Amino acid sequence: MTVGSPVKLIIWFMVPMFLGNVFQQFYNIADSIIAGQFLGVNALAAIGSTGSLMFMVTGWISGITSGFAILAAQWFGARRYDTMRHYVAMSVYLTTGITVVMTVGLLIANKTILRLMNTPEELMYDVSSYMAVIYAGLAVTAAYNALAAVLRALGDSRSPLYFLIISAGINIFLDIVFIVWFHMGVVGCGYATVIAQGVSALLCLLYIRRKFEILHLRRDDFKISGESMKKLLNLGIPMGLQFSITAIGTIIVQGAVNIYGAFYIAGFAAGAKIQNLIACIYMSFGATIATYVGQNWGAGRLERVKKGVRYTQIMILISSAVLMALIFFFGKYMVLMFVSSSEKGVIDAAVTYFMAVFWCYPFLGSIFTYRNALQGMGFGLVPMLGGVFELAARAAVVAAVAGRASYFGVCLSDPAAWLAALIPLVPYYMYKMKKVGQSLEYKVE
């Protein structure tokens, strides 16, 4: 990504990233669609109410592994492959340790977390069983995210996409098998998800072993370095916290929605899952600009960094206009993927959510542009601070309206969060560009 047209490179890298993110969303969406169509509204509500928890857990894992891969991208851009392998090896240690701690802790705290979220008692068994399976399978989730992040750091965004397509198909097939044929209920969706993710992780590993000799780790690469681990954590933890802090905000919102009952829970869940699909294009631009900036920053090409960020922001604004029109005119019909047309209460709740958030898509997309650009340069603190602003805005809106105002008021917490997140991001990016442009002296740390 250090030579050639920035626009072409960004689009070429982003498209498979986008398709990959869409297929990754299918894990939970397929669970919800099949559960809603075959098991009913309560099953849809049960799986749907776990969306914020899933986002917190998988977002943390995705964030830290993406953060770890930034150093791999920078040293790859600098053509220092021995150093790159060393950081990959250190990230293996860190990812493994973090995953073990998460798995044990979340399994122990499973029902306590759900009660804090005001999960209705009639949904508790299904929700807790489903999440227990997801927690138990976090090792394969972490493995896929770590391997895919390293591939993307080296400029290969297509192979993870192909593996996700395969595993998404497996997930849908197993959902049908476990629910329709074996009558396993909601927990069957959890098993389908974990097995499918395990397949994608295995395919990534086999592909790396066969195609990327520069990623073949040696004994010397695994020599433990506290300094190297510290540098990885300085990038990984802020990125993981950025997702987790945002997820905590969505958990607060979900807890407020749960007060309104199963129909609102199901409608909010359907709307949020469609919203997550919409956000895939922003996430993909963000991941692309992080890799693009990381490689060009490592190669010392500041002007290419500026151009890449500017062109990405323009493309996000154009795509936002298209997505806003799509949701405004067709959002209602998308909800029919999850429930039949007779479930008017669920459909109305989803449409209410759409009307609360669709106008703010340009701001949502801008978050990913500036946050990931700063992360690609190695600056993790301010992007995390953007997440803190998101959390504060969501919490403030929920505190003001939950239980005392309409469901629409709770839905407005998302636009408030997106606007708040930009408050530290844009000024800090402009400040850094100006400062580095004046000195023209920086190095990969």
Strand content: under 5%
Main sheet overview:
none
Extract low-pLDDT stretches: 441-445
Number of helices: 16
Radius of gyration: 21 Å
Helix content: over 70%
What's the total count of β strands? Answer: 0
Number of domains: 1
Distance between the termini: 20 Å
What's the rounded overall pLDDT mean? 86
Shape: globular
Structure write-up:
Helix 1 packs parallel to helix 7 (158-181) and helix 1 runs antiparallel to helix 8. This protein has helices at 6-39, 41-48, 51-77, 81-116, 121-136, 138-153, 158-181, 186-211, 226-258, 262-298, 302-334, 344-357, 361-377, 381-401, 407-411, 413-439. It has 445 residues and is mainly α. This is MATE family efflux transporter. It is a multi-pass membrane protein. It comes from Faecalicatena faecalis. Keywords: Cell membrane, Membrane, Transmembrane, Transmembrane helix, Transport.
Please specify the SSE layout and strand pairing.
Elements lengths: L5 H34 L1 H8 L2 H27 L3 H36 L4 H16 L1 H16 L4 H24 L4 H26 L14 H33 L3 H37 L3 H33 L9 H14 L3 H17 L3 H21 L5 H5 L1 H27 L6
Helix pairs in contact: 1-2, 1-7, 1-8, 1-10, 2-5, 2-10, 3-4, 3-6, 3-9, 3-10, 4-5, 4-6, 4-9, 5-8, 6-8, 7-8, 9-14, 10-11, 10-12, 10-13, 11-12, 11-13, 13-16, 14-16
Protein name: MATE family efflux transporter
Subcellular location: Cell membrane
Membrane topology: Multi-pass membrane protein
